[in-house]
Amino acid sequence: MSESFYTRSAEFYDVIHAGKPYADEAATVHAHIQAHLRSGGSALLDVGCGTGSHAAHLREHYRVTGLDLDERLLRVARERNPDAAFHQGDMTQFDLGRRFDALVCLFSAIGYVRTEDALRRTIAGFARHLEPGGVAVVEPWLSPEAFRPGMPRLDVAESSELKVARMGRADWEGDLSVIVFVYMVGRPDGIEHWEDRHLLGLFTHQQMLDAFAAAGLEMVEYDPRGLIGRGLYVARRPESSPST
Fold first, then answer.
1. Is residue 61 within 8 Å of 30, Cβ to Cβ?
2. Which of 98, 97, 102, 126 is nearest to 54 (CA)?
3. Per residue in 202-220, pLDDT tens?
4. DSSP one-letter string for 16-45
5. At how many degrees (to 10) do helices 116-128 and 205-214 cross?
6. pTM of the full predicted structure?
7. 194-233 as b/e, with b when 16 or more CB fall inside 10 Å?
């Protein structure tokens, strides 16, 4: 996963998602982590952190570090969380040179790895960044069975001098899901529009479980509802896990 899909729309990300209940979701994630954490620390890595909205609430309980591919999103995250460290990197191949007590990958960011091979590499990277007894919480994208292409979706949002309309439609592209978003943005100096295409892998429940197992992580909880109906995987690095 070498390219970002938010290069042009990054500045509108928070406007579009203004209604997302980040505080409630962060509280749910915190509860899952605390139910299974055995490492004894409070360092947390947010992979695919976006503009740092989950991090802003997780900071109440953890020393947060963020990772994202898009530098524009990270710029917002740093402004929102000035006392946290944020790194630009690809979740399929990053190495921060340290381990964490908890790792989260939310809002279906894991779907952007696209292939099962990349999924396994990514989860293995998560495991390497966890302390023994540390917990990973991963919110998946849709499975092939749950994916429903077709009906367009419209999101409309605004701020004092900005009006944004985003229409999206999902479809298949080979064995991937493709989400096409058409943006229309109005400002006092004019109106512009463009199209973004997001390609995400459709992983089965078994493929997700197999990826965690292959990385040496034990599945301690699966919540089929999750935060927004897509499920939530909670896995732990064994306390006796080797230091390498």
1. yes
2. 102
3. 999 999 999 999 999 999 9
4. HTTTS-HHHHHHHHHHHHHHH--S---EEE
5. 40
6. 0.93
7. eebebbbbbbeeebbebbbeebbbeeeeeeeebbeebbbb
